[in-house]
Amino acid sequence: MNYFSNQEINNECLAVCDGEFFDCTKNCENSECSRKCFEELDVCENSCPCGADCPTGCVDCPEHPLCADECEDAQLNNNDYKICLNDAIYELDICLKTCPPQIGCHNSCYENYTEMLFLCPCIEQESDVFILVIGRTGKRGSVSESYLQSGDGSSQVSATIDAPYDEYTYYAAHALVNGKLHIFGGAEINFRKIARLDDCSLIELSAQLNREREAGHSALSINDGTQALICFGYGSDNFSVPNNSCEIFDSASPVMTFSSNSTHGYSGLGLYRDQPTTVGCWYEEHNKAETLSSSGWTALPDHPLRISTHALVGLENKSMLLLGGYDSANGRDQAGIWQLQNDEWSLIGVLKDVCFGSALYIGKHIYYFATNDNTRTHPIHQIEMTSDEQIQSVEVIGYQPDRNYKPVLFQVSSNYCV
């Protein structure tokens, strides 16, 4: 699977390496010289975009000579941009000169000019994606420190969300039901609570979860967003004993459904082949995967790692991605992007940092709000997908203001609650 940012650059780089290797070996007269040529070839190939040192291409090695930014000083150096700009100016000039003395006609000319510019390479466009981020843990685990993040990383502004108390979302799970953001359970006071975000306020509903779910549980929108599946977690009276139970909420009241075969605390839920799926567990440190159908949970192939605290993202092609998380066998976080497709796990990409967090899939972009406890950094990744949902690029577009383990994420408008 090709997840590199620019395979053509990789091919060009390898050709340069081969040329240098040829020049090196043709002057060799002994095996020691040839050995050094091979070593230099390995170093050269590894340093190429998409090579071992730059696995995701120019994203990893922006300083490589072949990775020059085509948009830097585009008005001077990028011929495609200059041609496109001149075409737009030419059309604007004709339009203005043929307009009668009416302001509406002139405004129309400038609107058409702007539309033409948006089609030009290197033109920066304002983000049309905005994500409300509500804290769940740590210093950012308070509703009062919510913020709005733009999808292009250009802005991060405070948002005002009202709630019964400031730590209301602490360790809560979240999912959309009929287009509304709902939170389920969580620590602090009421471990069975269900609340809905109405405008800028979290309103607690009269309905309650059937089981206490203080931490480690997960929620997922199912059945075309009309219901939420809530599973796993730990209650106040049995925090050391994880449970396998699940329940379904439909905006009225939750009802119990099939329990999973293994427990999956701190391991999330995602869609695989349009069915709820989970993998791994924090406390039991296993790698078991299973999926839920109308007849109950059935096993899927084990994940290669004993994984937990990752994010699961279902794709339109029916496969599922696993991002980041904690590898208990090695005792550390991991940066892999794994895909479950055709009942087979494969490593298809690498994050820019080892981390764990929450993810949201919007318009062929995955936004991954994560935390690395070792470096105490909190990167926001943007993973760009191609039209057939292959990874095209991975980049960090910003950082969370502070530690925020698996924050609540919700796509909103640009001025939502700000």
UniProtKB/TrEMBL annotation:
InterPro entries: Gal_Oxase/kelch_b-propeller, Kelch-typ_b-propeller. The lineage of its organism: Eukaryota, Metazoa, Chordata, Tunicata, Appendicularia. This is Uncharacterized protein. Gene3D superfamilies: Kelch-type beta propeller (2.120.10.80).
